[in-house]
Amino acid sequence: MKTIDNLTKDEKSLLLFAECACVDYGGIYQPERLNDDDRQILKAWKLEGFCDHGRVASEHLTSTRSVWLRLSDGAMQLAHELRIERARRMWAKRGWISTDEKRGMPVG
Predict the structure, then answer these.
(1) How far is CA 64 from the centre of its chain?
(2) Which residue(s) pair with 52 in the sheet?
(3) Which of 28, 9, 14, 12 is nearest to 81 (CA)?
(4) Going from the N-terminus, what domains does the chain have, and what CATH number goes with each?
């Protein structure tokens, strides 16, 4: 079973990319955004049932998006956990403060 702890950095990055494609673009994406390592990971994930992917039918091609992918429920849950982790990490290293922080008020 996949967990955040046993994913490589490349797998985490690809999973977040795939989640974005699924949520924001209905599962289609630009194939040139993937490198050969990403494609190999997707192949392995497909065999494991972690995701499914393929080519968009020719009559539905757009000039930029010609492949699709769908993440399993487990993959979507893991992506959600990664988003939370990333959001916390990004918040901790932000380069700005709020007006409440400037005034000395506690911030959520």
Answers:
(1) 19
(2) 70
(3) 12
(4) 8-88 (1.10.10.10)
Report residue 101 CA to chain centroid gap. Answer: 31
One-letter amino acid at 68 equals W
Type of residue at 56: V
Please tell me the pTM assigned to this model: 0.84
Residue bearing tokens 């990055």? 13
Q: Is 92 in a helix, a strand, or coil?
A: helix
Give the type of residue at 80. H
- Strand residues in the chain grouped as ranges (E): 28-29, 51-55, 67-71
CA distance 75 to 16: 10
Tally Cβ neighbours within 10 Å of residue 21. Answer: 22
Phi/psi at 41 (nearest 5 deg)? Answer: -65, -45
Q: Could you report the per-residue pLDDT of 94-104, keeping only the tens digit for each?
A: 999 889 888 88
Which of 52, 54, 78 lies closest to 65, judged by CA? 54
